Here is the input.
Amino acid sequence: MDIKKQENVRLTPDLKQDKRLVILMVLLVFFGPLAIDIYLPAVPIMAIEFDVKITRIQDTISWFLVSLGFGQLLAGPLADRFGRRLIALIGVFIYCVSAILAWVAVSLDILLLARILQGFGACATSVCAFAAVRDSFSTKQTGQMISYLNGAICFIPALAPLLGSWLTTHFSWRANFLFMALYAFFAWIAVYSFFRETRPVDTDTSGPLLAPSRYWKVLKEPVFIYHAMLCMLSMSVILAYVTSAPVHLINTLGLSMDEFTAWFAVNAALNIFASMTAPKLIENIGTRKILNSGMMLLILSGLLMMLLNRTEEAWSFMLPIFVSSFGFAWILGASAGKALEPFGQRAGTAAALLGLFQMCGAGFLVSLTQRLDFTEPLLLVFHMLLIIPGLIILWLPVSKSWYEIEYEN
Here is the structure.
């Protein structure tokens, strides 16, 4: 089938149904960031209670992201084979059960096990959300919708630490996981009641579920590899920030939990604004130019963080983070849509591999670098400057052909 005709078939004609779908997809993509951000203020307290180094508590985030990434290798083909709705419902159920296990965990090992399981649940919701967007909108609209979803996701870093701080102060750190379980319970009801299947009738379901050829058809596309790597490097900056900020701001600089959440909320607000501006920028100036701007801002952030490294103030740590929020928001919004562009018939598998790069790759990279002898600011400098090769490739003539064709709505 002709690509443009195929795009038009996938457009959802019912505006009301479009809005309902977007709301449900927002509910589904919230699972991942909620599982990361809500208990960040409690990280130092958890380290004391379990009598371990903070790095071990940070592993509960890294391990979650690793399982979130690897699980998508299975969740993607399952979503292509059995549909987005069923796999989303199963993922929400696993998330709910694992959150309850984390709530009652009596040891760090049990907590880590619960977090791995929770990552598997969240991976299914993420794959189904992005695949459903790719199913229902044109290529150009997909990039814009992903940017809006990223903007919605940024509400979690703004609100979750505030809620987590309140839950931890008035109850305990365990209350954060109980909240996740309750959110999953009500989200399951919403998905069951209102999510209508979006999988295209021409979706490729032939062959074994986990056949290497299924993944190879996606991985052999240079457009996918390049933009998935940009997603991974951008996500590593976000992960390095959310795991390092509590340690640096609370333990090193002595900020109170309320002061920490205030700084976190300001950055989240900037991230929301940056993510919401990305779709319009993609439409007006194109994917290539916004990627160029985003990567240059990320590099600028790294240089600024390096310059301010010796100034031990909250503002000197957060100012480069504020700049980087625009950088990684623009990169994620533009590169995620571009990575999924060629795969209308394999949207689930492509979204799964994108999630593997973005979550598992970033989780592994940050977990590895956290064990090096870096201070928190220098850890962020390292990850911000890792984007330099991506910018160089973008400037090469070979990359220009990736952005020549623009699909119409």
